[in-house]
Design brief:
The complex is a heterodimer. Chain A is mostly helical. Chain A has 6 helices and no strands. In chain A, helix 1 (about 1-20) runs antiparallel to helix 2 and helix 2 (about 25-45) packs antiparallel against helix 3 (about 50-75). Chain B is built from 3 helices and no strands. The chains are: A mainly alpha, B mainly alpha.
């Protein structure tokens, strides 16, 4: 059952991600990416990362993809969009890269399957002793505000910089490239 | 029980799809969507390893990757809008202001 669910989700993820690249219309690409995000959220649920599944849908599908669609529809992008001239070079390079990675994964024998010994994940090895039954969200939250507090602050700084940058860049007259 | 290598190969396939998308497409929107594909492929790996190694740290890293993805989209689309205002096209080959 678990294997079947994995293969179903993996098939849908692979097909939709190829469609994202293959569609000529950016709106179709974005919708196909939306389908992929939902199936990836389901994959996260099957890996017991429920919080991330919710965040995946809220942030990716709810915010990022809507931003893309907003820009596509705002600018009314209906131009004829062909592929690069060197399509087959790109596909060939991709096939080579994929073959290398698969070869490495198979060769390195990372096929180890430590059966998760029941029960929920633990937040780091140190807290295993005081194993209180914690939910996934509580675990991520406590880890985020203790061990990863500094990266958390850096992430908030990144968001601040991105916000200021986006406002400034999209403002009229700040980035004037007409003079060519 | 699904072996970990299946998740790694799925992640590699999605990542390479994004890579090929960046290489073969000329539409700047699709290029940004392909970058999203690559970021998501790394997230699969993080979550799978987090599950198989019994450590929540991987999920925290996905959280940070998500933050960076959101910032990248906001700044990337803002740059695109600024470029589009000066030159109404989506074709990346026509953006050669720096004569590259």
């Amino acid at each position: 059952m678990e294997t079947f669910v994995f293969f179903f989700l993996a098939t849908v993820i692979v097909v939709t991600s190829i469609l994202v690249v293959a569609f000529r219309n950016p709106v179709y690409s974005a919708i196909s990416l939306l389908v992929m995000f939902f199936h990836m959220a389901a994959l996260f649920v099957s890996l017991h990362a429920e919080f991330l599944a919710a965040v995946q849908i809220i942030v990716y599908a709810g915010a990022i993809l809507v931003l893309y669609l907003f820009v596509v529809m705002l600018l009314n992008l209906k131009h004829d969009d062909s592929y690069q001239r060197q399509v087959w070079v790109g596909v060939g390079l991709g096939a080579v890269a994929l073959a290398e990675v698969i070869y490495l994964v198979v060769k390195a024998g990372i096929g180890f399957t430590p059966p998760p010994t029941g029960g929920p994940l633990t937040a780091g090895a140190s807290q295993t002793a005081s194993a209180m039954p914690q939910g996934n969200t509580e675990m991520i939250g406590s880890l985020l505000y203790t061990k990863y507090l500094f990266p958390f602050e850096v992430a908030s700084l990144i968001l601040l910089v991105a916000m200021i940058g986006a406002i400034l860049l999209a403002k009229k007259g700040v980035l004037d490239i007409r003079g060519q | 029980m699904v072996p970990l290598s299946y998740y790694m190969i799925l992640s590699a396939v999605v990542f390479v799809t994004g890579l090929v998308g960046v290489l073969v497409r000329r539409n700047i929107i699709i290029l940004l969507l392909s970058i999203e594909l690559m970021l998501n492929a790394t997230n699969i790996n993080f979550v799978a390893f987090s599950y198989y190694l019994h450590d929540t740290a991987g999920q925290v890293f996905v959280f940070f990757a998500l933050t960076v993805a959101a910032a990248e989209v906001a700044v990337g689309l803002a740059i695109f809008i600024a470029l589009y205002r000066g030159k109404p096209t989506v074709n990346v080959e026509e953006f050669n202001l720096m004569k590259g």
